[in-house]
Amino acid sequence: MARSGKSKKSRLRVRRVVHVPLREVSGICLRRSRNGRMSLIAVGDRVAKIAWFSLSHSDGDRIEWHTSSIAKLSGSELPKHDPQIEAVCADGGGRILLLQETPPRVELIDLKALEAVALIDLVIEGRGEIAQAWSDPKGSRGEGAVLLPGGHLLIAKEKKPAALIEFGPPHSRSRGLVRGGALAGGERWSIKKGRHQFVALAIWLPDKALAKTCADFSDLEIGPDGCLYLLSDKSSSIARLDDLPAGGGTAALLDAWRLGDLDGKPEGLAFTTQGRAIVGLDTRKARRNLVLLEPAIARSSGPSSQ
Fold it and tell me: What are the Cα distances from residue 229, in Å, to 19, 85, 219, 278?
C-alpha cells in the first residue's frame, strides 16, 4: 500500500460510458444481497427517484435500467422535486439509505415494502466550527455516507471545512473505522423503526496531503479490499484513506488517483467486485453520466478476488 500520499497521482482511464436515466446523478452504490446477487443503484438530487440494474460478471454486457419514484413512499418525508439527495448506500436486507443535504437527515427505505423504515435527523451539538457550519442554512453538509456496524453512520461533509463525521444515537461511543470494519456485505443495518436523532460522535479533519489532494469531499465508498475511499469533485480525484481512530482526529491519505477528463461533475463512487472504480456524473442531460474506470485500484486480497 502506498505511503501517506507522497507518490504522484496515477491517472485512471475510462473503460466504459453508460447512460443513467436520471438527471444530475448525485450518488451511486453497489447493493450486495445474501444470495450473492448485486445491483448498482443511482440517485439524483433533481427528483425523488432511483434507478438500478443487476450486475453481471462482464463489464460489457447490455444494461437494463429500472426506475422507481420514492417521493410517495409510506412514511417518507422526501419532497417530489429538489429532494437534495446527495448519497445512497445499501445494507444486506434490501434496504437503501438516502442522505439529504438540506435538511441534514437520512431515510432508510425498504424497497420491497415500499416504505420508509427509519427517519434520522443528523445533529452536531456545540458551537465549534463544524457545528456552526452544519447548522448554517447556507452551509455545506453531507455528500457521502457509509454504513457502520452497531447502527452508526459515517458521513462526508463536503467543504468549508471538509470533514468525516461519525453519527450515532446519543450517548453511544464512537467506533471509528478500520480496514474491513464497515458493515459487512449481506448484513442488515441495525436500527429500530421510526424517527431518530443521531449526534456527531467523532470528527476527522483531513491531513495536509489529503486536503491538497481532495479540495472537497463528494462521496464515500468501501472498496472490495475493505478500505475507505473518497471521491473529490473539485480535484477530480479518488483517494484511499487510512484507518479512522475511534473518537476522531485526522483522516490520512494513503494513495490517490486522478480521474482524467470527464464530461460532468464526479459525485458518486462505487466499485466493481474486481476493484474498478465506477463514478456517477452530474450532467445536464441523462446521458453519459456513469463511467467505469481502469485499472482496478481496490482489489480484494481474499480468495474470491478476480
Answer: 24, 20, 8, 12
